[in-house]
Amino acid sequence: MLAMFFWSFVVGGLICVVGQLLFDVAKLTPGHTMSLLVVMGAVLDGFGLYEPLMDFAGAGATIPITSFGNSLVHGALQDADAHGIIGVLTGMFQVTSSGISAAIIFGFIGALIFKPKG
């Protein structure tokens, strides 16, 4: 169990290091960096590499933004097998809808509670 925590920390940290290097070295904006990390997770899932990474690293691979790209592709491929071309469009939204809904709801609640600066 201790090894799982260690590898989760290492893999999650390495994903964060990649994001930080994109900020510092490549001078990318936060939006570009986030998009690139999502695409990286999607590509890794497309090649079938992200699932083994999640099995190995646990939360170190499921918590970072790369997991969102994995979820999009995984849902699209899963529903494409079941429903054809329509499944590509609907599958990605079924898998990620709860996370997107939570972000919208908590963002709205935060906007009601706190005053924006500016």
From TrEMBL:
Family annotation (InterPro entries): Spore_V_AE, SpoVA
Domain of life: Bacteria
The keyword Transmembrane helix appears for this protein: yes
Keyword Transmembrane helix carried by entry: yes
Transmembrane segments: 6-26, 33-50, 92-114
Pfam families on file: SpoVAC_SpoVAEB
Keywords, in A-Z order: Membrane, Transmembrane, Transmembrane helix
Name of this chain's protein: Stage V sporulation protein AE
Species name: Neobacillus cucumis
UniProt gene name: spoVAE
